[in-house]
Amino acid sequence: MDIVGNGFLARNLRALSDRHPDTVVLAAGVSWAGDSAQTDFDREERLLTEVAADCRATGRRLLFFSTASTGVYGKVSGPGREDVPVTPCTPYGAHKLALEQRLRDSGADHLILRLGHLVGRDQPPHQLLPLLVRQMRAGSVRVHRGTVRDLIHVDDVVSIIDRLLGQGLRGETVNVASGEAVPVERIVDHLEARLGLSVRREHQDVDAHHIISTEKLRALVPEVARMGFGPLYYQRVLDSFVDHQLAAARTAGPSSEEA
Q1: Each residue of 45-94: pLDDT tens digit?
Q2: Entry's Pfam families (predicted)?
Q3: By the 8 A CB rule, do 144 and 183 touch?
Q4: Is 179 a member of any domain?
Q5: Taking the model in full, what pTM does it have?
């Protein structure tokens, strides 16, 4: 496969670089839902248009990463499914949904994956886990009551992508997530215990609870049943993240942060 981009997900997908030669992976889009500028949205739109046109001309399939976040599924009643109309809740959600439609209209063979919150080694500092840990080490953390996150380890995502691409899927949209809506309070609880911290929590009330349906994913990739998705899966994901952070700090020496 050809990979466009060099960010967190793109680097992890390099393990598949010698597979799926009929596929171009667009892994250079906007990855920060909270504070992205219109110029970033415009850049991703232009890039998608260019890559889709090239794929249409060469007959290759374009793999595009969208989002299964609150910005897309926050107003859905019940689990967010790929086959139901959705009303975006945020500019980021509206942007990603618009790009999905632009790709469908482009005439290029494609596969759209709506991703949960990826966790793994060497995440950029603006993403959820690095941001939470930084806040916690500073002594306080902002927690939105009612907010949930569906955490999924990037290694599991890469395995799922490999299997989906191997099926030759085209023209499909698939949620790639664990299917577990974990309250952010519980995520902070686990990080606090693992890092040996006691932090002050600044609470804000929000209405942002949503669940991501993985029914279609499980039907397409039965192997996910062996990935351990379930109520405690998020703890294993967090443990892996913390273990890597602590190991990296020990390697770097005493002057660095522990996580």
Answers
A1: 999 999 999 999 999 999 999 999 999 998 888 999 999 999 999 999 99
A2: Epimerase (PF01370)
A3: no
A4: yes
A5: 0.93
Which amino acid type is present at position 140?
A: S
pLDDT at 254 over 70: no
Residue ranges making up the domain that contains 54? 2-252
Q: Is residue 259 part of a domain?
A: no
For residue 36, the number of C-alpha atoms closer than 13 Å in the C-beta half-sphere is: 20
d(CA 171, CA 98): 16
- Which domain CATH number covers 95? 3.40.50.720
Residues 238 and 188: their CA atoms lie apart, in Å, by: 10
In angstroms, the CA 239 to CA 226 distance is: 19
The string of DSSP codes covering 68-97 is -SHHHHTT-SSSB-TTS-----SHHHHHHH
Query: Coil, strand, or helix at residue 177?
Result: coil
